[in-house]
Amino acid sequence: xxxxxxxxxxxxxxxxxxxxxxxxxxxxxxxxxxxxxxxxxxxxxxxxxxxxxxxxxxxxxxxxxxxxxxxxxxxxxxxxxxxxxxxxxxxxxxxxxxxxxxxxxxxxxxxxxxxxxxxxxxxxxxxxxxxxxxxxxxxxxxxxxxxxxxxxxxxxxxxxxxxxxxxxxxxxxxxxxxxxxxxxxxxxxxxxxxxxxxxxxxxxxxxxxxxxxxxxxxxxxxxxxxxxxxxxxxxxxxxxxxxxxxxxxxxxxxxxxxxxxxxxxxxxxxxxxxxxxxxxxxxxxxxxxxxxxxxxxxxxxxxxxxxxxxxxxxxxxxxxxxxxxxxxxxxxxxxxxxxxxxxxxxxxxxxxxxxxxxxxxxxxxxxxxxxxxxxxxxxxxxxxxxxxxxxxxxxxxxxxxxxxxxxxxxxxxxxxxxxxxxxxxxxxxxxxxxxxxxxxxxxxxxxxxxxxxxxxxxxxxxxxxxxxxxxxxxxxxxxxx
Length: 481
Fold this sequence. Notes:
Radius of gyration: 23 Å
Strand content: 5-15%
CATH topology: Serine Threonine Protein Phosphatase 5, Tetratricopeptide repeat
CATH class: Mainly Alpha
Mean pLDDT: 93
Number of helices: 16
Distance between the termini: 35 Å
Structural class: mainly alpha
Number of domains: 1
Helix content: 40-55%
CATH architecture: Alpha Horseshoe
Shape: globular
């Protein structure tokens, strides 16, 4: 299977010698930790590691559920057949909470130093990571999480609604904190805000674009939460709430291949071993005459090893299916440096605005936003939009959610778990059942909690399970009920 090597930390831990006249309290202090971290030293490790985790989630998880790729050949229990256990998301849970602790340290250090930009950035990172966690599991440890230093060993699980309300309030606070005419005192992997005069303004755009992602996710809860008003407040006042205006503004990480910015996958051959491209995704791109087809996939081969064009394997194919060809696979260049890890692309925001305009939540042309999103999604991969691209009946704008969401699905290629979240929210794209799907062919609505909270935080785990209606992959969460 595909394996990742994470850079565990970019920090150097300083060890101090113990003198003979120090007190017992001083000697017993944990010297393996930086007791007074500097904000500027804490940002880069979070950016690299959480971006790499997002890349991994797309590659090892989202692609299987959302029929981008599949284990091949395989007739056993696999993720692409909707076989999910309590361990399916254990690494994601553990790694996310590990780096959320460092985000908390970043915020504390920024407040201590009086650095408003680092404080705002910490709030944005916190909202980015926690929103992905709650959208994966539902109710999660939140208000009492990352508080080991305060003696909180068994944090309560907060309801998803409360998590969302707090994250949205935090993002609004972050927007007000940014000082755009100042640069950062340390390195910044997303926007080079230590040297780029526009860097902090780009962080501000990320902040407000993330608010729109979260607000659109909970669109069905308008009234219970003031969703429409918050969206309109952002979109109607770009001077106060700037959002992404181009691909250059999107949040992404450039992997150069020069240490420490190495690709998350150590060996490109591991990226394609034991897998195939999915028929649904490949056929969608073929029907669109999409210029990214060769960038994303290799050609299929007949049994004589001759190229036969792009042809995927049906995800969840029926047991006993035989193949007279070797299906297309993912292009190994997607795992090689230089590459961009997409955290939140501009194209995604354009599809959000297209949906909001279609539904009358905001003014503007849903078609314009849709076409902007399609173009941006192609250009972010370095491809060129064909001159007649929108004359293709499979691509031309139609005022319907299905058309917008299909193109958004393609645009979210390699964006952590967003394809899955959006499919659960909207039901689009409609994915085929090829006869071998488990779970009654129903898309899993969440992941089960991993073993750690069950064993180490049993009482709070049981309370969360009761209030959610069960620890089951088919339990819908608050924003989707």
